[in-house]
């Protein structure tokens, strides 16, 4: 990822002036303990289809007459891109039945019984609020190693392996320990602070590159009856999409690595304290849209596209997901977190970008070769371009934008990646420890702080306790940056 640059201690005043207050509040969230049941069953029968013969056209040895069962998360990216790729599969294997396609937002609810019964689908887009815990699935050996797919020839250029056609970092994201690749992240997501350039133009403003400028702009907007920020209050684990790279920018990427590794006192790092206090200041100064803590991601995005708030932390799927309410002249953009002050260890432009929309092939899939072949088709230039045109997002395929006219949102994402260069961070909590990231850090920690029910110090103490408990929990598999 490249080295970080050091700075002098000039400008430390930003940390000194931020105050903290408010009482600690607690909320109750449902547990995800059923995931371990979902991922540990040994029931079911071995009725896998017989593997087919390998050839130049069929390098993975797909059984040409076997059925293929695909389940897609019907969220921000919809499902048409997958349906189109499935048609390509049926063209390649005309003797096979039409691909069985299921789209749902209830991944866990619908697939738990199938995992328990030993009859999971052949390919799953494991995404959304009901995403199955990747760390648990990998730890319980419920996923197929996708290395054969990675080593297979790519569809566009057989002289290249699939692994050589992926964007930087995508392959590594699918690895947990060592070389096996358990997950194929199909989308390439740029996380950050999203805004409307039109809204900023109306305030005669540019995106604030410093936190002082951010607060000044929020104050200016407030006087016009516009909130500075909103976020998915019911799912406050969206906040880290801009908060985590902010922490890395302040203290260096090693701070996030220590957090991912569940190291003792990782959350008590001064960079975390500074970042939390800065975000808490948004609440204290009244720059958060009223009612935000009770909003879903859709409600907060809709308030944002209607001009009720300037900024929202999100991922690049937001363009497609918010399309129904986005005005034509909105000029949606994304930017990296503002600088806190001159002592930040990483430069402005430091951003979080990584693979998104995780696809997995269950270890007990009946037609695992078919599941991998479907992914190989999706990682062709044709399917990649179709994905980008349909859902306004980059794919994991390193290319696929030539000849396409990009929206302002997509172009800003491409520009942000170019500006970041090596200063791209990729925190792993959300795929290593889903419960810790979403329920505990997100909802019970950061969410409570941003709603004013906990101070930064209280939120940090609470989150550190959650992380310590996860580190000691022998029922879950632990992962570390290699």
Describe this structure in words.
This protein has 482 residues and is of the alpha/beta class. 39% of the residues lie in helices and 11% in strands. It has 20 helices and ten strands. The chain has helices at residues 13-17, 34-38, 80-92, 107-116, 134-139, 147-151, 170-173, 197-202, 211-223, 240-251, 253-260, 270-284, 297-305, 318-321, 368-378, 381-391, 408-420, 429-432, 434-450, 456-472, and strands at 69-73, 100-104, 123-125, 184-196, 227-229, 309-314, 332-335, 351-360, 394-395, 424-425. Strands 1, 2, 3, 4, 5, 6, 7, 8, 9 and 10 form a ten-stranded mixed sheet that branches. β1, α3 (80-92) and β2 (100-104) form a beta-alpha-beta unit. α3 runs antiparallel to α16 and α10 (240-251) crosses α11. The two termini are 13 Å apart.
Offer a quick outline of the entry.
The protein is of the alpha/beta class and 482 residues long. It is 39% helix and 11% strand.
Low-confidence stretches: 1-45
Major sheet details? 10 strands, mixed
Beta-strand fraction estimate = 5-15%
Distance between the termini: 13 Å
Amount of helix: 25-40%
| Average pLDDT over all residues | 90
Q: Give the overall silhouette.
A: globular
In N-to-C order, the SSE pattern is: HHEHEHEHHHEHHEHHHHEHEEHHEHEHHH
Whole-angstrom Rg? 22 Å
**Which secondary-structure class do the elements indicate?**
alpha/beta
Number of strands: 10
Number of H/I helices = 20
């Amino acid at each position: 990822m490249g080295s970080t640059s050091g700075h002098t201690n000039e400008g430390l005043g930003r940390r000194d002036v931020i105050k903290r207050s408010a009482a600690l509040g607690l909320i109750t969230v449902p547990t995800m303990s059923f995931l371990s049941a979902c991922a540990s069953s040994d029931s079911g029968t071995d009725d896998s289809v017989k593997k087919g013969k390998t050839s130049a056209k069929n390098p993975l040895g797909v059984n040409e007459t076997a059925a293929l069962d695909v389940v897609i998360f019907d969220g921000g990216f919809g499902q048409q891109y997958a349906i189109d790729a499935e048609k390509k599969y049926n063209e390649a294997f005309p003797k096979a039945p039409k691909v069985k396609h299921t789209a749902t937002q209830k991944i866990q609810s619908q697939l738990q019984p199938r995992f328990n019964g030993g009859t999971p689908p052949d390919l799953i887009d494991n995404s959304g609020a009901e995403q199955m815990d990747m760390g648990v699935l990998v730890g319980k050996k419920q996923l197929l190693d996708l290395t054969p797919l990675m080593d297979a020839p790519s569809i566009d250029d057989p002289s290249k392996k699939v692994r050589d056609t992926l964007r930087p970092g995508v392959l590594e994201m699918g690895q947990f320990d060592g070389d096996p690749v358990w997950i194929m992240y199909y989308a390439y997501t740029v996380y950050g602070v999203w805004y409307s350039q039109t809204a900023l133009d109306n305030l005669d403003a540019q995106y604030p590159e410093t936190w002082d400028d951010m607060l000044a702009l929020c104050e200016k907007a407030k006087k016009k009856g516009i909130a500075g920020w909103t976020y998915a209050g019911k799912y406050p684990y969206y906040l880290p999409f801009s908060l985590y790279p902010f922490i890395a920018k302040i203290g260096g990427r090693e701070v996030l690595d220590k957090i991912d590794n569940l190291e003792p006192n990782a959350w008590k790092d001064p960079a975390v304290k500074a970042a939390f206090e800065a975000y808490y200041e948004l609440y204290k100064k009244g720059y958060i849209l009223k009612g935000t803590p009770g909003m879903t991601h859709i409600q907060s995005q809709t308030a944002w596209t209607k001009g009720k708030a300037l900024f929202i932390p999100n991922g690049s799927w937001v363009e497609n997901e918010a399309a129904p309410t986005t005005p034509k002249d909105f000029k949606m953009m994304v930017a990296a977190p503002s600088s806190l002050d001159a002592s930040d260890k990483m430069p402005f432009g430091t951003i979080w970008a990584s693979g998104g929309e995780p696809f997995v092939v269950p270890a007990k899939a009946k037609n695992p070769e078919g599941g991998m072949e479907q992914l190989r088709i999706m990682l062709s230039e044709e399917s990649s371009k179709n994905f980008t045109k349909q859902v306004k997002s980059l794919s994991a395929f390193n290319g696929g934008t030539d000849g396409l006219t990009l929206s302002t949102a997509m172009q800003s994402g491409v520009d942000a990646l170019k500006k970041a260069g090596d200063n791209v961070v990729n925190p792993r909590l959300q795929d290593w420890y889903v419960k810790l990231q979403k329920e505990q850090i997100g909802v019970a920690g950061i969410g409570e702080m941003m709603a004013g029910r906990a101070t930064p110090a209280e939120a940090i103490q609470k989150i550190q306790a959650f992380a310590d408990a996860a580190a000691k929990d022998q029922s879950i598999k632990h992962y570390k940056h290699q």
